Amino acid sequence: MTIIVTGGAGFIGSNFVLYMLKNYSEDRIICLDKLTYAGNLSTLQSVMDHPNFRFVKADICDRETVYQVFEEEKPNIVVNFAAESHVDRSIEDPGIFLQTNVMGTAVLMDACRKYGIQRYHQVSTDEVYGDLPLDRPDLFFTETTPLHTSSPYSASKASADLLVMAYYRTYELPATISRCSNNYGPYHFPEKLIPLMIINALSDKPLPVYGKGLNVRDWLYVEDHCRAIDLIIHKGKTGEVYNVGGHNEWRNIDIVKLICKELGKPENLITYVTDRKGHDMRYAIDPTKIHDELGWLPETKFEDGIQKTIQWYLSHLEWWSEIISGAYQGYYERMYGDR
Ligand code: NAD
Ligand code: TYD
Description:
By secondary structure, the protein is of the alpha/beta class.
């Protein structure tokens, strides 16, 4: 099998590339990534010379280059992680979210139609369902919950999902969609809640909690997400959506307090800051379908996963300090400019 993984230099995509190379020694993995600010090639350093791996620096919106890669590689499967992924940035500047998340998805699917494909998988998010009220803990997102977005980010992801279903129906593109809850784990870019709080706490910097910190997210260890996608691309039914989440809801403030406790830092580092515009209150996934149909269950308990994650940030200081200093952005040129 040849599998194109777009966005494979980002957080979840890189974890997926490493997971696939480890678990499928016969498969060839092609990572196609634009290396935006969120893409970090040093993350893939350990596999750059792997005989079954190829890295292509390319924009999924660049039709000519995408077609060329399909022509060369004749992929069997495409898994699309490439996206602008940060809600706060989408509030500042929605344009690039529409470009990459919607138009880029269309280009990839056009390539799949042109060259033929066994499976196109769209990595989506639970944020397409909007949010749930805090006083209704009995409510969860199912695959039939209506799309009801709040941020330009979630609106762009929902638009892409609609386009995927349209390509499935109109062109019979063999597509699947997964909608996962918040991920955490190694290689998480330090603009997101958990890595940002770990890194700030380590340097005794203020821990900026939006609003009152009462918003709830449903956290899943990144490897459990990778395993879910693995099951869907191999055993999932085309035209279907699968929700992925581990019933692990936490208020933001409690996550930040837990990080302080684990690192032995005082809670008075916590600083309440102006709330995010349109801030979703609660996300909560019902994963019954993927459990019943594909036998998926999360394997990493949150208490273990958060400790592993904190330990990972403690032992990979170079990885995140290069990001904070901006040095990682020259990595591609330094390492591969002349190759
Ligand atoms: P990320 O921001 O860490 O990584 C995104 C990657 O995509 C980067 O490597 C970036 O360089 C690349 N990219 C961006 N624009 C591109 C373009 N035009 N062409 C090619 N590559 C491009 O994101 P992430 O957190 O790893 O999320 C990956 C996917 O999973 C996204 O589609 C996101 O919507 C979805 N998702 C994320 C979460 C989460 O908790 N992080 C949860 C559910 C779903
Ligand atoms: P984030 O990691 O940006 O993921 P998402 O918004 O996609 O769920 O944020 C997770 C939660 O943490 C969200 O409710 C916003 C909040 N948050 C803060 O309180 N402070 C911060 O500095 C960040 C980045 C997020």
